[in-house]
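Predict the 3D structure for this chain.
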Amino acid sequence: MSATTRAAAATSAAATSATSPSAAEPKRGRGAVVLTGARYLLAFFFAFSAFAKLVAHESAVESFDRMGWGGGAMYVIGGLEMAGAVALLIPLLSGVAAIALAALSAGASIVQLTLLDPPLAVMPALLVVVFVLIARDRHDRTARLLALLGRRA
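Done. Predicted structure below.
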């Protein structure tokens, strides 16, 4: 094989490895694409919900008054929702955000069952399932984040 042929083969191999997924980054199927879309959609939904709480929209104030909770709880939950929405969009934080938002959604489901409208508890319960699927899909990123944090400690 001539030097020119070897150089062309090396260039071709480098280009192929740059465009194809490596062993460290497995191929992602349709399910992962759907979950990525769900992450973006849920980030928008939770940012919108958080915004209503953070600006004390009358519907949010009314809901928290019905629960007997003060405005402070509304702002805390709004802040948690906004942080979760932003973190869902950051690849390294998306798995942890999904876990946190699953917990927040589970709490919302319980609040709906016990303090507000029991039939409306279904939606946050379904969100728990979606967030668990997202967290499972993003477990590699969560492991990477934990490893980074472990090195700093």
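Residues 49 and 78 are 7 Å apart (CA to CA).
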